[in-house]
Amino acid sequence: MIETTKHDNSSRELIAFRIGEQEFCVDIMSVREIRGWAPATVLPKSPPYVRGVINLRGAILPIVDLAARLGFQPPEPTVRHVIMVAQVGTQVVGLLVDAVSDILSVTDDAIKPTPDVASDMAKTFVRGVLAIEGRMISLIALDNVLPALEPIAA
Amino acid sequence: MDAMAAVKQTFFQECEEQLAELETGLLAMERGEAESDTVNAVFRAVHSIKGGAGAFSLEGLVQFAHVFETTLDHVRNGALEPTADVMAVMLRAADLLADLVAAARDGHTVDSGRSEVLVGELTALSPGGAEAEAEEEDDMSDFSFTPVTVAFDFSDAPVDIGRSYTITFKPRPELYAKGNETVLVLRELERLGELEINCDASGLPSLAALDPEGAYLEWTIKLTTEKGEDAIREVFEFVEWDSSLTIQAADAGSSDAEPGADSTEDAFAALLRSIQGDEAAQPATTAEIIPLPSAEEREAVAEVEAQPTKAAAARNSESGANANAGAPQTIRADLERVDRLIDLVGELVINQAMLSQRVMEAGHVPGSAVALGLDELEHLTREIQDCVMAIRAQAVKSVFQRIPRLVREVASMTGKQVRLITDGEGTEVDKTVIDRLNDPLTHMIRNAIDHGLEKPEVRIAAGKPAEGVVRLSAMHRSGRIVIEVADDGAGINRSRVKAIAVEKGLIAADAVLSDEEIDNLIFLPGFSTASEVSNISGRGVGMDVVKRSIQGLGGRLSITSRPGKGSTFTMSLPLTLAVLDGMVVTVADQTLVVPLTAIIETLQPKAADVHGLGGGSRVIAIRDAFTPLIDVGRELGFRNTATDPLAGVAILVETEGGRRSALLVDTIQGQRQVVIKSLESNYRHVPGIAAATILGDGRVALIIDVDTVIANSQSDATILEPVLAAAG
Prior knowledge:
heterodimer, A: 154 residues, CATH 2.40.50.180, five-stranded mixed sheet, 10 strands, 46% strand, globular, disordered N terminus, B: 728 residues, six-stranded mixed sheet, 21% strand
């Protein structure tokens, strides 16, 4: 989201999660709830990273496989996988991740600019990196996770 | 400015209600049921619109409403007899008032010539010409003694030249709370003549004791004006009720307006007492202090407050303010909140069902304490669901109310005499349906008058009364709402319909059709029987459009016709658009829902009936017609290989264009009513999918968009033009 690119020195909270061996985080304000994996209803003609839709208390919630979205090998979801329900603009999206690992309280100057890499994925999603206790955690922006904002080549 | 816009929106909503009341009242008067309650209600409706329009400076609307109101006042006080001619003018005036309101709302203008003509007609109706300027006293005339005042002021007003008045004006806190401002009132007063203003600040407490929202000042104003007392009162029109006001002509012994103002004060005091629950309340006239823009809400308040005292309640029922006394009290609620509530209750029902199932699985027998508790829970949740759904239900009255005007307009355009009979206005249906009922209904009514009814001379020649009857009725029938539009005209001219269909190439010249089949030809696209294209119902929009829009609502439209006796169009709609009747099917392990309205029949394909057409496309022979067979699983990308048609089920569907196709699915699970959920709100539109729903087990199922699935299958496969032996 836009606020993740803002640079002031106020402290903020981030929620960290794992995809495979890597750690990522998003602003905690955009996460509405965290729930366990439930089988999704497949949507026809959708990009491979859209797992389908589930019922979130009467609303239809699309599930984005964040691993596939970020270009990793998509997992075979198990009950141990987690869906982070996040607000993206006016929409609510479920993000499938391996596990939620931490809640981080950091100041903005702890967020370092993304190292110059060629990967499109990094340019599209990563807004900065944090070094915490020897781990590298990438801060990602959620505005582009849904295909609606990015026309898919089909 | 948003706050202002919101207030304005409320005003226009209230206008809608006032206009509806106005029309209902006028129609009752036209039928000769002009009780004083009715006349009062009509009068009040116009007055409220005028009051509100004044607050928003909608000059054109105020002026017209004023003239209208003046004429109505003559009817009210018996000076004008509500004859058929008078009522005709009144009804047209009501139509114009509605147009003016709509124009003010949408920011366009209404032909001023039309307004002038009606103003002329209305004025001509008034006995003794147009000098009546009775508006202020109108408000008061509900007090038993004020007619005397009216008479006095009338005789007095013309000779009021250069008189001076002493006005004392002491605002109460409510005046400021409602956003009124003393200085504006005084400035307005200044325009009437010379002012000498004294402010009495003696009531002002010390700063420590001062309530910042209180009102402590009193003004004494000496005004010398050529205008009469009426003009002065008009300045105070919107603040009078929230202040103590006396207006005294300097050379007159006493003011005649004072009793009115005093009794207002009394009424206010009484209202205060009744709010405080004082049993010793005076016979309060609370319901009368309401002719301000927000009359609607205040009326509700007044009614609530008035109930504790019997005297006030009795007063209420006899005053015109409550022509619909005993009508249920209502609140306005944001539709989104109601929808959210409905969603949540739907979830509650599903959750409760799942819980019951788990409990049974856990080995609790029916009859055990846990099971009994769950039964109770089930009853409660069902009841909650019914109640919540009922919140959205509305009577079709709101749609039917617009019809009389339509009938008048179409009747005068076609030169036909029409009597409209409506029935079952109280039939309730979901708001989503109400909102979309208007267009098809309008078209059906136009069609009934334009094409159904004969001209008066033709009717007389056929031995019928010159006046045709259009009957509009609504009723509930087996979980649906059925709306009928029946005319007593000539019925469908079958030979002509058939000739036109042949001429337009819709049927073969030698086709043998039953009467019913011929009647249904008028629903075919591109069919219009009007030999002369009228600007009423022949605008290229035929009954096919009506039928399609009704099908779009999950409804059906049918016709029955008897030569010489008339035709009846029957439309049947679901009670809500939030749910849909669907056939639940399985395709490649996915559960899908096919809307029932599209389905004609289902069948088990036989090897002999399925033929390949090359390019992977197939057709199936159904009663001598070759119909494209569409593999839904493949079409939606659930699987890549073609399924064996003999192992599946074919669902014969009809598209909006009237063409037929067969959808091949694996199995049919059953028929069910499902709640429609949007995919777009959190995702986006998915080609081939109309919406989603949540099944009893809590899982999401997709609802197939039959039309796009068929259209896509034709565009991506190299299918030849489907071979259809007969259309329709």
